[in-house]
Amino acid sequence: MTNFALYIYYKQQDELDQQFSNLKKDDFLLIIINYYGHDVICTDETHGMNSHHFNLTTLLVLDDMREGFPCAFMISNHINEAVLTIFYSKIKSLTGQLQPNVFISDMAESFFYAWIVEMKSPKHRLADIC
After folding, report:
1. Cα separation of 7 and 90, whole Å?
2. Its domain of life (predicted)?
């Protein structure tokens, strides 16, 4: 399998993006991907870690040692289903439509709903309640 890393989408604040008209002028998005696999996919959000109120959304897969491997990243100033749909659509543009055996996310439904808009429904879904 070929491994690669690149940024796949960037929208700076104080600009509008005609491709994604649901983004506001003050929205910031940076999406980076490093493709590895898709048997088990986990999404996680880190928020409140800086004074700019940017969130880090990470998509992890299991590597060949069955350990979590972070492979796609999005930095944005807020997280909702529309923003997550953009994240997943940019991943899909490089990887094609993915269908994991297991999809793990936190309790926020927006992670899963955005996933099934862009990708195939997983065989199993787990919610991380930690």
Report:
1. 10
2. Eukaryota
